């Protein structure tokens, strides 16, 4: 009798899930997630018991655990916001991370087949990226595709892929104003494409269906200060996305977006979202030009060095926008210190041979 194939990267990947509720949604994901280790980060009231379906291998951290593990440095981990998920990135000991929200279900491709989102993310991460020259057939490493005529042969080897950014069917990831004017809009378009985001181009990263190589970019995957006690929310993943993109561009790493899709089941309240977002909507008109102009020195040869340099520039340039950014810059430094304490062997991540190629 034939044995089932071993799942890809079974012992090299953790699935990180932030939640405030019982994880019944895992039943739908069981065929794809059960072989992997889960790190569950419980937000909100730590006295509440979160139920996890039987048969999953997991560890669960609540706010008390975060305070116990990090001590005073726990101040850098957001409370009452899904940004708390980045604590899971920090305590993981695996090379790869996949993170998903608890309102995301298994989507179906146009043929009606269930999409194994995790498997597609892994394929994306294990294939190179092409950030320096755009291929008009999108990802040239997929079956049935290749580099088109005119693509430089010197660039066809590609670069390591640090991040795989997946998409969503059903409820789109819209901001509150767009939600308010398009309350019934649903994404039904399945686009069978994966592409590398070009060097020098920022993007709005969504954390609900995201995978990354923790060894290549993990220390930069900080989801900022959001939620309780902070003047802003729902910009946690985007802040991380802007930081990682600047660092990936500097260190010669790739970021892919496109497949896989998940089914986003629940629209959040647009009025609540507007309250969380309104300062961010205003501030992002200054944040985007800031990140577009960030210059990292040749001395920034590791993710940690790059991230500390960005934190200094945040304080120097964005501190004038609002004092919140001074707090955020300090938290960025605290995050790196905590990361290095929990990850001593890889505390100073290897310098990349093609680093600092600004």
What does this structure look like?
- This protein has helices at 26-33, 63-70, 86-91, 117-126, 176-181, 214-217, 236-251, 270-293, 303-318, 324-342; strands at 13-19, 37-42, 57-61, 96-100, 104-105, 161-170, 194-196, 209-213, 254-264.
- It is an alpha/beta fold and 358 residues long.
- Strands 1, 2, 3, 4, 5, 6, 7, 8 and 9 form a nine-stranded mixed beta sheet that branches.
- α9 runs antiparallel to α10 (324-342).
Distance between the termini: 55 Å
Q: Order of helices and strands, N to C?
A: EHEEHHEEHEHEEHHEHHH
Class of secondary structure makeup: alpha/beta
How many beta-strand elements?
Answer: 9
User: For the CA atoms, what is the radius of gyration?
Assistant: 20 Å
Characterize the main sheet. 9 strands, mixed
**Helical segment tally?**
10
Overall mean pLDDT score? Answer: 95
Portion of residues in helices?
25-40%
Shape: globular
Uncertain spans: 353-358
Q: In what range is the share of β-strand residues? A: 15-25%
Oligomeric state of shown chains: single chain
Task: Outline the fold blueprint.
Layout: E1 13-19, H1 26-33, E2 37-42, E3 57-61, H2 63-70, H3 86-91, E4 96-100, E5 104-105, H4 117-126, E6 161-170, H5 176-181, E7 194-196, E8 209-213, H6 214-217, H7 236-251, E9 254-264, H8 270-293, H9 303-318, H10 324-342
What is the gist of this entry?
The chain has 358 residues and is an alpha/beta fold. Helices cover 33% and strands 15% of the residues. The protein is globular and about 50 Å long.
Keywords:
358 residues; alpha/beta; 10 helices; 33% helix; EC 5.4.99.30
């Amino acid at each position: 009798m034939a044995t089932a194939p071993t799942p890809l990267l079974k012992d090299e990947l953790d699935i990180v899930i932030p939640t405030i509720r019982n994880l019944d949604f895992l039943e739908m994901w069981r065929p794809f997630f059960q072989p992997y280790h889960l790190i569950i980060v419980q937000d909100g009231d730590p006295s509440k018991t979160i139920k996890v379906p039987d048969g999953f291998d997991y560890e669960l951290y609540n706010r008390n655990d975060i305070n116990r593990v990090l001590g005073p440095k726990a101040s850098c981990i957001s409370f009452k916001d899904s940004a708390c998920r980045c604590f899971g990135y920090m305590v993981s000991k695996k090379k790869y991370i996949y993170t998903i929200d608890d309102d995301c279900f298994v989507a179906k491709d146009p043929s009606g087949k269930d999409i194994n989102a995790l498997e597609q993310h892994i394929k994306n991460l294990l294939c190179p990226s092409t950030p320096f020259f755009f291929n008009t057939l999108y990802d040239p490493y997929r079956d049935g595709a290749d580099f088109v005529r005119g693509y430089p042969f010197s660039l066809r080897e590609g670069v390591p892929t640090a991040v795989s950014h997946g998409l969503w069917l059903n409820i789109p990831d819209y901001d509150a104003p767009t939600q308010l004017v398009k309350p019934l809009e649903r994404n039904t378009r399945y686009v069978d494409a994966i592409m590398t985001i070009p060097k020098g181009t920022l993007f709005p990263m969504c954390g609900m269906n995201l995978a990354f190589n923790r060894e290549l970019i993990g220390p930069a995957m900080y989801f900022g200060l959001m939620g309780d006690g902070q003047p802003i929310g729902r910009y946690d993943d985007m802040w991380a996305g802007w930081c990682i993109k600047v660092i990936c561009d500097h260190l010669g790493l790739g970021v892919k977006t496109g497949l896989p899709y998940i089914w986003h089941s629940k629209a959040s309240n647009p009025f609540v979202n507007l309250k969380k977002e309104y300062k961010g909507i205003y501030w992002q008109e200054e944040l985007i030009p800031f990140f577009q102009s960030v210059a990292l020195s040749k001395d920034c040869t590791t993710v940690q060095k790059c991230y500390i340099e960005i934190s200094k520039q945040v304080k120097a340039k964005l501190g004038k926008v609002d004092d919140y950014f001074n707090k955020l810059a300090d938290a960025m430094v605290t995050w790196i210190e905590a990361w290095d304490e929990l990850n001593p062997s890889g505390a100073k991540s290897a310098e990349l041979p093609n680093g600092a190629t600004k």
